[in-house]
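B., you asked whether I could sanity-check this one before it goes into the benchmark set. Here's the sequence:
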Amino acid sequence: MTEWDVKKLRILRTLRDRGTVTATAEALLMTPSAVSQQLTNLARQLGVDLLEAQGRRVRLTDAAHLVLHHAEAVFAQLERAEAELTGYLRGEAGEVRVAAFSTAVPALVVPAVRLLRAEDRPGPDVRVREAEAAQAYELLTAGEVDLALSLAAHAPTARDPRFSLFPLLVDPLDVALPVGHPLADAPGLRLADLAADRWIFGGSGPWSEITTAACEAAGFVPEQAHSAAGWTAILALVEAGMGVALVPRMASREQRREGVVMRVPEADRPRRHVVAAARHGAESGPAVARVLAALTETAQSFS
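And here's what the prediction gave me:
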């Protein structure tokens, strides 16, 4: 019978995810030569070639992808076993590490922790790490966090066998206008009504893409007057009359300014979707399941 070495399979999966032997070694705190040696041993154990040269780099063979396709089920089952064992040993009060984007920390994670603390039974010890989607999923893959919160547009697909995805909420995007804006009180405000205005959004990244996509869907390209990534800075610029901005309701509920009017563009209804992800199988652990339930309950307050 062929010998399947889980440790070596994890190295192979990390190489697939990271792309190079050097990056794999860094992620696993190994030397590149140790990574190569382990993969050579795995190929010998399985009796197939797992890697082939591609210039100065290596690529996974079709056999390697076939091996990993079946190995994902093994990894998921091991996650379930670890989750159940942790639940058996610790009850439901284990540690749950959460990576979340900046807006989600005060709007979702902190209220969820408060819900858990208000329960009569001991709750999980939630450890929070602020991280954008790319980093959050790297941490989740590496086992450094247990849950990752991100926008759905930047999450893995539902077909990715490594993760289980859980929709949390649909977050409406409102228009932030200075109090003295001519359309601050206008009925039936549309994004197209603001086509001639100066806009405030980040120079790159998710929020730049969301703002430009919403405006282009409304029929115009927004003129970027100022570049800012943090909601404190964006709303301060709006309050000063220096432009208008799209702001997610999750952020505007946490940061209110007297000089800013939040309007709902009824005709356009732009929105973003927020999801949570766990390693496939790990969501069955009692502590992770309780944190997910608290996040879901918190998210329902935005509906």
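One thing to flag: The radius of gyration is 23 Å. Otherwise nothing jumped out at me.
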